[in-house]
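Work through this:
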Amino acid sequence: MLYSFSIKKPDNIQAVFQNLKELAEKYKAIFTGDESSGEVTVSGVKGSYTVEEEEIIIKINKKTLPIPNRIIEKEIRAIFQEAQL
């Protein structure tokens, strides 16, 4: 694992993950998983997530480009925010 961070678990977790799957095409991402755990690949970044009681733990496992972790985290947070709308 290269980097990890957490996002507050939304109340409507099932709807958020359904929206994430729909957003995957927009972001040219591969998203596999469900409301408990899964994996995502986007723009040369591979990661995994685990949903816990109050938060979603996101782990960045591989980067093919030297992208700063804070940029990756910012983008992932923005995607989750968009999925909550």
